[in-house]
Structures are given as C-alpha cells and as structure tokens.
Amino acid sequence: AQRVTQPEKLLSVFKGAPVELKCNYSYSGSPELFWYVQYSRQRLQLLLRHISRESIKGFTADLNKGETSFHLKKPFAQEEDSAMYYCALAPTNAGKSTFGDGTTLTVKP
Amino acid sequence: GAGVSQTPSNKVTEKGKYVELRCDPISGHTALYWYRQSLGQGPEFLIYFQGTGAADDSGLPNDRFFAVRPEGSVSTLKIQRTERGDSAVYLCASSAYMNTEAFFGQGTRLTVV
Asked: What is the DSSP string of A69-106?
C-alpha cells in the first residue's frame, strides 16, 4: 500500500526565514514524488516533481530514499508563499496519485 | 477555455438522489483523473482514464459511483442514491499523457442534505 504523511497541519514562519515542509512516504517500489500548491481561491497546481530536479519559486525538494522523505524547502520565505501545500506519490507508469493531507503555510510580515 | 473546466461548481442534492458531475479537460489531453477531497484531507483518487477507457477505477468507493468518458474528452462522474457521506469537493484533472503534469479543475462542491 502507498501512503503519504505530512506531519504538520499548520506551519507559520516570518518573512525571510527558512521554511521546510515535511513529507514522508511509504511505498515498496520506486515512486515519483510531487509537491502541489493551492493558493487562496485558486485551483490545485503542480509546484515541482522530483525527477525534474528543478527549483520553482525558490523551492527545492530532495528525494531521500533511505528516510523515505521528500521535504520541501525554501531558504527565504515570502508572504506570497502562503498557501496549502500537498505532497503526492505516484507509482512509476501508473496514473493514480496518493496525496498527503496537506500543510497550510503562513508567512507573516 | 485554456484550463480544465468542471460543472457545476456547486451542487446541493437530497439524500437518495442521482447526480452527474462534468469535467471538460484541456483539449488534446489523453489522461483524465477524478479525485474526491473531504474537508481537512488531501485529494483521494477515484478513477483514471487513458483515452476512452478506465485504466484504473480502484478508488471508486462502491458501485453507486460510476464514470464515463465516451469520446475520450469530456468525462462525467455519476453518483446514484447519494448519501450524506458523499458530500465533498470532487476534483478533475487532465494531463497530456500518463504521469506528465496534471492540471486541475476548480472542483465541484457536492452537498448531500
């Protein structure tokens, strides 16, 4: 069975501070990992995926297979980063994705 | 339109009634996904279409739920004999191919009273 755990429901940081949103997963194979973001009153959208190894809006995420984690990090948070963040897992060559329950990030001025 | 469109945006129905939720994917996208999101939870997979066929319907909770995509474009999620526990936001997403970037619709909020 595949499972994604985001241990923090809420996370609050000050502008300019580093931020890390945690994601742990369980899956027996080699999955693809994603981070999705939902800004206020907007639809869910892809932020980044581990195979692209990109930095999007200053965010990065490293897949740690030993710890089965895919934490999302940004060195200097901005107020516009305030949103709901979801970590998701998809088996390779399968359409189904499993989502975590999300973390609400608030960046205070 | 350029994005995934879902109609209606809100639907209130009485327990026991039948409902249909529609999804218009991005033109040319072969993969289409339905998810259900309850309050305080992440999206929960329901069904995935590749073209006209349901490639994976393992997430449909029971036989009251059914989805079709007859021409490989628009999809309809059908719920029979609705129950209060079916109340949720139903999300549709499409992607060019399986496991490429998925684009989500704004969702249909279903309330069963």
From this structure: B--EEESS--GGG-EEEEEEEEETT----EE---EEEE
Task: List chain A residues with CB under 8 Å of B96.
Answer: none
pLDDT in tens, A2-57: 899 999 999 999 999 999 999 999 998 888 899 999 999 999 999 998 877 777 89
Residue A45 is nearest to which of B56, B99, B104, comparing CB atoms? B104
Q: Please give the residue of chain B at the shortest CA–CA distance from A33.
A: B99
Q: From the list A45, A86, A90, which residue is nearest B42 (CB)? A: A86
Residue range A59-100, pLDDT digits in tens? 999 889 899 999 999 999 999 999 999 999 988 777 789 999
> Which of B49, B36, B42, B34 shows the shortest CA–CA distance to A2?
B42
Residues of A in contact with B35 (CB under 8 A): 99
